[in-house]
Specification:
By secondary structure, the protein is an alpha/beta fold. Helices cover 51% and strands 15% of the residues. Helix 6 links the parallel strand 4 and strand 5.
Length: 251
Amino acid sequence: MSGEPIKSRSGDVAAQQAAKDGSLPASKPSTSEDIAAFVAKAKAMSPHAPGSKGRLIFALDATMSRQPTWDMACALQADMFREAAALGSLDIRLVYYRGYDECRATRWISDSAELARLMGKIDCRGGNTQIGKVLSDARREGAASGVRAVVFVGDAMEEKVDDLCAKAGELGMLKVPVFLFQEGHDADAEQAFREIARLTGGAWCRFDPGAAAQLKELLRAAAAYAAGGREALMRLSARESGAARLLGQMK
């Protein structure tokens, strides 16, 4: 599957090459001017404007250890659309990483069948985590067009926690919560995921390996929030524990 081209700054050869092959470029440290401009834009916009269409970034670790969860996600992502359809509308941007330095993103998709088709073309490959690129992409999209929420499904974290937290803080300023759904019991991943959730106003939840029902509820709850905001999540929490778990952690 070819990912969406990523716009690059002039003179940035690596980013320009990434734009050609559809991969997400590695992010660079922000200058003081970048930060000032970002803060100003964050204050001037709201991804939750009345009547706006919900946008959800659905990010997946597609390294080799993720194969079982990837298969589940392919089957369960339709539930996100169904939940959103009952509340309004939802666009999803699929982001995934795998292999050696490969991280790709699709364009915004509003059709569940198309998303399933694209996901079906992806196979898992060994490699290290690239969560930083996922958060950077969410920041760019959040500042450019508004993102209601980010969902991340993974089982590991092999990056510098402080760097991830800095990116998470920027998402928090944009009021874009990150919902991190962790498979397994990796302690380093849990510590990082919990902190990212805290900084963005999102939530962290663990699900058991192979537990489709648990993941299904969590994905549906995130979709409800992205499509209908906190009120939609509150209504869903009255009948589903997954929504209640998210709501209980959100600021």
